[in-house]
Amino acid sequence: KSYNVAVVGATGMVGQKMLEVLAELKFPIANLYPMASKRSAGKEILFNKKSYVVQELCDDAFDQDIDIALFSAGGDTSERFSPIAAAKGVIVIDNSSAFRMDPTVPLVVPEVNPEDLDWHKNIIANPNCSTIQAVVALKPLYDAFGIKRIVYSTYQAVSGSGVKGYADLERGIKGEENTFYPHPIAYNCLPHIDSFMDNGYTKEEIKMVNETQKILHDNSLRITATTVRVPVYYAHSESINVELKNEFNVDDVKTLYRKAPGIVLEDDPQNNIYPMAINAENKDEVFVGRIRRDFSLDNGVNLWVVADNIRKGAASNAVQIAFALIERKLI
Ligand code: 2RA
What we know:
By secondary structure, this protein is of the alpha/beta class. It has helices at residues 13-24, 75-87, 129-145, 163-173, 203-215, 250-259, 277-280, 311-327, and strands at residues 3-8, 29-36, 44-47, 50-53, 55-56, 68-71, 91-94, 123-125, 147-156, 222-229, 236-244, 263-265, 286-294, 300-307.
């Protein structure tokens, strides 16, 4: 069976990657409906060597016979158009943060909680990129040893901010002024992703806390996060400190990672082998290394986790959700 698929935000950084991944993973597409705002509508895009004209997103855009709509066009657009599409029987996979914490919307990483797809009500939320790679790495530990507490420290690529963040790094390297970030990002680190809340945390940090608890279905998880923008174009790197509930040994953890879905173990420090952004770029796996005991805790372990934030962190996870819908006979 083939499906009619819309990509909303088809000309943006993630939207373009969604099209690339749909073709690369050979998602069974009967008809493609690339959509974008008025500003980008009319552009021509190539998909599977065929040319398509980008349609303008409007209220009756989903009156066409569409089965699945992948959204990556910002929260406002999702808030307005996802319910319209869903009401017409379209299954929406939304990359924005608009519906992630809505209790009627499953927040899904296929390697972690595919069973949550079974209760979708036509809107499915793609988690934040920094959360996706984290929960893929945490799931094997959660199932084997239980988790009490998580400390996230992230080193996030500028592509997470889309073309504007990417351009600020290019400009900074050439000695030109930053026009997007509040300070220069070249040769610098900014402990400021998304906006600050009254409690001193940024929305990005709160997202990691709330989304991890929702995906693992465990509000007893004690989590804190510091999310930092670094001068890297693609792939987020994360230091993750985990307090487990039960005893473990490092070799058992490495054995778990060798067979865990979606994970590549890169952990041989004596030979300078550990995950790096330059090696994760344009791949769909989550790379895990620097696994070592945290001797300051009874059952503590430290991880270093790297993944491409535009692929596994957004586009590929969304397409993998679409494949999971087929596998689970939900479409
Ligand atoms: C960022 N995770 O990196 C956020 C949104 N993509 O900016």
